[in-house]
Design a protein that fits this description.
heterodimer; A: about 180 residues; alpha/beta; Rossmann fold; two-stranded antiparallel sheet; B: about 250 residues; Ubiquitin-like (UB roll); 10 strands; about 15% strand
């Protein structure tokens, strides 16, 4: 009861590849140290579907559709500190390569020219979020407090960043830890 | 202080740097091993002053070090938090004005734009992205021209004109419409006499001009700026030629 309250952390991947989440898991045995001081709210690790009040929100991936915006806003509303992790969250990244290709051309290329299991058709279920014309970095949609670049940032970089943040220091990356690739 | 007045000198960040008439602040700084950040400057070519990264405070006024002639008793400030903050903003604007998707670029790790951003500790591009529509020209048998990554430093323009004597490249348009053009009726690189051995094919600071069939020969993580700062790399050729200044 009187134990020091654990820091509550939520994570999500929007238009990303989960590579940043994989890199977080790459801190290996340090995960035990990490779980000694934090607990997870919404994240793919817990499968909790909605974000509650949190200390830190970590967002991977850019904003490419309407659902991404809903998730991102939920994170911003609930997290005291919001962190953009990885190239996609910070610049749009590889998904933003489609930004100068017409959305309809993308759909035709993916769904019409080479048919899928259900033949040549564009998915149109109301459950599916509507895609945007472009992929945006998350800071163009909500205020972001910290940026952790990399594609993905290495496990050591993530560990350094998180320990700085959790222990109340301004996160600081050495030269070799700052990468955009 | 005030001992020998053998040569003229300026002061950069409190350090006395000697110069000879005709040298710019950048020339004098490079010769003395004093690093001033720069992207569009290369001592091989006529200075241009268009990237503005070498902005320094000269007697309290901001100037580009690569174009400003050194004059006796100039007091120059370069390595200050204010100027580095201005430089970071300039680099951030270069990032959002083009389409610089580092994870998908063959120049990543060898890119001077990226390296300048690392040097200036840029964590995000900060401004709204333009995502401008730009072309990729793959018409040349040996060289790609990817205008998504062009930062208009004009190094290829200068190299082609001054060293190769070919005038393959030029700049057209004004303001935000400024863009690199290719000197051919078709506008395509494949219709010029541009060759992979040209100096202009080697000077691009980003991945706008890429030699074909070289992709990922050096793996990501083992490239020029992965472990060395741009300040070290850009000073290396200067160190080798230093004895000439005796």
């Amino acid at each position: 009861m009187n134990e020091k309250r654990k820091i509550r952390v939520a994570t999500c991947s929007l238009a990303g590849c989960f590579g940043c989440h994989m890199s977080l898991l790459d801190i290996d045995e340090k995960l035990f140290d990490l779980l000694g001081v934090i607990e997870f709210d919404r994240t793919p690790f817990t499968d909790i579907k909605h974000c509650g009040p949190c200390d830190i929100g970590i967002v991977e991936g850019g904003v490419s559709n309407a659902e991404n915006v809903h998730v991102l806003k939920e994170f911003r509303e609930n997290c005291k500190v919001l962190v953009a992790i990885g190239a996609c969250a910070i610049t749009g990244g590889v998904p933003a390569l489609r930004n100068n290709i017409d959305l309809w051309d993308c759909f035709q290329e993916v769904y019409l020219y080479e048919g899928g299991l259900e033949g040549n058709q564009i998915p149109n279920d109301p459950e599916l979020p509507l895609p945007f014309d472009k992929v945006y970095p998350i800071y163009e949609v909500v205020k972001v407090d910290y940026f952790l670049p990399g594609c993905p940032p290495s496990a050591d970089t993530i560990w350094k960043f998180l320990t700085d943040l959790i222990e109340g220091r301004e996160p600081k990356l050495d030269y070799e830890m700052l990468h955009y690739d | 202080m005030g001992a020998l007045v053998m040569s003229k000198a300026i002061t950069i960040d409190g350090k006395s740097v000697s110069f000879i008439d005709g040298q710019t602040i950048m020339d004098a700084a490079l010769a003395a091993g004093v690093y001033i950040p720069h992207l569009c400057h290369n001592p091989e070519f006529e200075p241009h002053g268009n990237c503005k990264l070498c902005i320094v405070s000269v007697n309290g006024r901001n100037m580009t070090a690569c174009t400003m002639p050194a004059a006796e008793d100039m007091v120059v400030a370069s390595n200050t938090p204010e100027l580095d903050s201005d430089r970071q903003a300039l680099v951030q604007m270069l990032f959002v004005e083009g389409n610089h998707i580092c994870p998908a670029c063959e120049a990543s790790g060898n890119c001077q734009l990226q390296a300048a951003a690392y040097y200036l500790k840029m964590l995000s591009p900060h401004f709204m992205h333009f995502y401008p529509p730009r072309e990729v020209d793959a018409s040349h048998p040996d060289i790609f021209l990817d205008l998504n990554r062009c930062i208009l430093c004009e190094l290829c323009v200068r190299a082609s004109r001054e060293v190769d004597g070919k005038n393959v490249f030029g700049i057209s348009g004004r303001g935000i419409g400024t863009h690199l053009v290719v000197n051919a009726a078709s506008g395509r690189l494949g219709d010029t006499n541009f060759a992979v051995t040209d100096r202009a094919a080697q000077v691009c600071p980003t991945g706008a001009i890429l030699i074909k069939r070289q992709g990922y020969k050096i793996p990501i993580g083992q490239r020029t700026f992965d472990h060395k700062k741009i300040s070290e790399v850009q000073m290396e050729p200067v160190k080798r030629t230093e004895p000439e200044h005796e």
